[in-house]
Design goal:
The structure is a homodimer.
Chain A lengths: L3 H8 L3 H9 L7 E2 L5 E2 L2 H15 L4 H11 L7 H34 L9 H7 L12
Antiparallel strand pairs in A: 1-2
Chain A binds a DNA duplex through helix 2.
Chain lengths: 140, 140
DNA sequence: TTACTTGCTCTAGCAACTGGAGCTTCAAGA
DNA sequence: TCTTGAAGCTCCAGTTGCTAGAGCAAGTAA
């Protein structure tokens, strides 16, 4: 049996975060020692590893909750899990596009900042100017 | 002079968000009408447009605050603004890398989900399995 | 003038944690 | 066995960047 600290070390999740996950019901309430300290087994390691990876991959906790509940009943079709992953993939692709635009913009800024004064520095100008805006979709 | 609603419509920023920006000092306190309603001029439109673009490009409000304070005193060297842009650029490059890895992972997941049941669905498996993990850096 | 929309302030809430205060329990060395 | 220090406990507050609601006042069009 593992203490919460060991569990955190093995999974790369901080101790308060583990307690937080328990609090919001993402992890079941842990068994306790005689002195009221949480004790974990290998199943908890797996579950928390799963959560950590999913978080790293950008899944919101709600999606993870869904995924976990799915994995608890492995006989139903995996379409739901697939859909969650697809949704996530779409979001990621969009984020990538926006970040790419941002990167280009910042690179241009840095290149154009010719060590003059702010008044001729494009860092301000580019962000204030609508015509240079890569996302002219006003109504988002 | 514009009401807060018009300002929001023109800049694509929601009304409560504008009030929030004023509250945290990102926008100066607006002039008021006889009936205590906020009134804005074209300068406010520009400033808020600047903020909106910067937010879209992923700048945190602190960086925007810095940028704005720089643009308020245009005679100082732009080294500071340049530095902020560089810092932001580094952060963006890192986010891009992580997102790229994530995208690959999700694409693999979706491709491998062969419409079976959860028990043979790789979405769950991939997230639980350490060996398939693209970020084996436990620390951080 | 009467509606109706928009505005006002204030408070509370969201995600997803993070950190601190003040206390108890555990593990290891002397 | 005692002691010391790390690690655990609970509870509460704070973070970022908003968003939503209550309960009003002000502005506007018919």
């Amino acid at each position: 049996m593992l203490s919460i600290g060991k569990l955190g070390a093995r999974t790369g999740v901080k101790v308060p975060t583990i307690r937080y996950y328990e609090q919001i019901g993402l992890l079941a309430e842990a068994d306790r020692s005689a002195g009221n300290q949480r004790l974990y087994d290998e199943k908890a390691v797996e579950r928390l590893t799963f959560i950590r990876h999913a978080r790293e991959l950008g899944f919101p906790l709600d999606a993870i909750r869904e995924l976990l509940s799915l994995s608890d009943q492995p006989d139903i079709p995996c379409g739901a899990a697939d859909m969650i992953a697809r949704r996530q993939l779409d979001a990621v692709r969009e984020r990538m596009l926006r970040l790419k635009a941002l990167q280009t913009e910042l690179e241009r800024m840095v290149a154009q900042c010719a060590h003059g004064t702010i008044s001729d520095c494009r860092v301000i100008e580019v962000l204030g100017n609508h015509d240079l805006c890569l996302h002219p979709d006003h109504g988002h």
